Amino acid sequence: MRAFSLIIPFILIKVIYLFIEEDKVSGLPDYSYNVTLYSGYLDVSEIKKFHYLLNIAIDDWEHKPLVLWLNGGPGCSSLDGWVNEHGPMLIDKNGKFQLNNYTWVKEANIIYLESPGNVGFSLINSTNKDDLYVDDNTTAADNLIALLDFFRKYPEFKTKDFYVSGESYAGIYVPMLAYKIIEYNKKPETTEKIKLKGILVGNGVTDWKYDVEPARMDFFFTHHLTSYEHRLNYVKYCLTNKTRDEVECNKIIDEAYEIIDGVNIYDYLQDCQVSDKSKGELSTKPTYYLRAPWAFKTFKKINKKILTLNEEQEDEEDTVPCLDDTKMEKYFSREDVQNALHVRRIENWYVCSDTILNNYNILDEGSIWTYPTLINEGLKILIYSGDTDIAVPFNGNQMWIKNLKLEIEEPWRSWRVENDTNNIAGYVVKYKGLIFCTIKGTGHMAPGWKPKESFHMYSKFLKNEAI
After folding, report:
1. What is the torsional sign of CA 261, 223, 392, 233?
2. In 242-365, where do the E strands start and end?
3. Confidence of residue 2 (pLDDT cuts 50, 70, 90)
4. Residue 235 above 50 pLDDT?
5. Does residue 63 have an active-site annotation?
6. Which pLDDT band, with edges at 50, 70 and 90, does 287 fall under?
7. Whole-angstrom Cα distance, residue 15 to residue 21?
8. Closest-CA residue to 154 (of 196, 186, 109)
9. Considering 51, 86, 389, 456, which one is annotated as catalytic?
10. With left for phi above 0 and alpha for psi between -120 and 50, is residue 447 left, alpha or beta?
11. In Å, what is the CA distance from 350 to each residue of 118, 213, 448?
12. Is residue 455 pLDDT above 90, yes or no?
């Protein structure tokens, strides 16, 4: 019998990615780095459109995870994270972009989502009071819908490991969105599950029993910002049941904030950066966090002098204390930049929205209630904290984590960056289901102020390696 050879030709298969070409940023003014960006809107409802910026990973993006980044506020834009913390280029004090050697985009594809509606370029196309209502639950629900629309637009990312990350009030946003994703994945009608692998929260509010004001009062004393006598009075009138006095307690808390007036609330070791808008009158301006409704969760009677806006400020968005955001705000207010990002025209873009801040309905339960579920679902969880932050002090995070009563797998230890072993970068403890990590000598925006250390921590976490 004659033998026949079967010749099978090699077929070259070209993978076609269906990225949304109309959202591709072909060139961003004054942004010289060759980076792949997509920018546009995600549909939340007929009246709600959330702006997103997708930064494709610098190398080998197909084999890297997808990370969602959310800034806090409530009411602050996640573009802050992109241009001030961990994007490929960061904006300097002169308004120029400089290369960031420690960009988080080296390790992941990152979505920067402006949430909730009416933050940054996002919008709610309605004046109806009910449509404008926003709280922790509505934000989580809307963020999930926006995320599902993202996967509809970019099906290439459906199979990637997915992480939710953020800082500050995103300590509420991040775990609540993760909880919503878990609920969504368990629905019988869900055919394509989101591959949620973990969450990262930096200097985040979580549990009102411990975070913010209670933690601040301890922070003030232990960092030599208030006196020993002031501490004794705080314990007596605020913490001791027999002598607790709300009027006296509020007076003591007011005194504490007057004492630290002019201190950088985001990092007490840094000097205040006076923005163009503040005209050097920083001490007379009501600061963003001291007017934020979540800044005073323990006692509701707040010094009206702190809360009252003067006439000059009523028509403008608020100046964030001790940080000069005007360079970023001027950049995103430019018409050529907005055209490049395919977003609606806004004459004055602001990093934080007073409209959201003043109307956001904060729920008393915080996000602490989500953690037992997140842990039981086997998510990787990293809670990190710059240890010089006053806005959301690390000691509050320590207390609510301790209250979860988790088993310690690896005890408290120092950690170092691999190429800088002479210096301690921070401290870390690994619980069963959660990692808590501090970054030494930096504050609220740790990735922007300690980029090398923050990148090391972030990279190790994504790769499931010891920090």
Report:
1. negative
2. 360-361
3. very low
4. yes
5. no
6. very low
7. 16
8. 109
9. 389
10. alpha
11. 11, 27, 19
12. yes
Q: Helix crossing, 394-403 with 213-222: angle to 10°?
A: 120
Q: Which of 51, 86, 444, 456 is catalytic?
A: 444
Task: Exactly one of 168, 278, 367, 385 is catalytic; name it.
Answer: 168
Torsion sign (Cα): 49, 51, 56, 61: negative
Catalytic (active site) residue 444: yes
String of DSSP letters for 16-72? -----GGGB-S--TT--S---EEEEEEESSSSEEEEEEEE--SS-GGGS-EEEEE--
Of residues 165, 223, 176, the one with CA closest to residue 384: 165
pTM for this model (two decimals): 0.88
The first and second tokens of residue 458, run together, are: 């972030």
Which token pair is 176?
């609540």
Burial 134-149 (b: 16+ CB within 10 A, else e): bbbeebbebbbbbbbb
The rounded distance, in Å, linking the Cα atoms of 268 and 374 is 33
- DSSP letter (8 states) at residue 76: B
**Residue 283 Ramachandran class (φ > 0 left, ψ -120 to 50 alpha, else beta):** alpha
- Answer whether 204's CB lies under 8 Å from 169's CB: yes
Q: How far apart are CA 161 and CA 450, in angstroms?
A: 26
**Mean local confidence (pLDDT), 307-324:** 47
Tell me, yes or no, if 353 is annotated catalytic.
Answer: no
Residue 248 phi, psi dihedral angles, 5° rounding: -65, -40
Given a cut of 70, whether residue 163 has pLDDT beyond it is yes
Q: How open is the CA angle 311-314-317, to the nearest 5 degrees? A: 140
Residues 427-444 have pLDDT tens digits of: 999 999 999 999 999 999
Predicted local confidence at residue 160, as pLDDT: 96
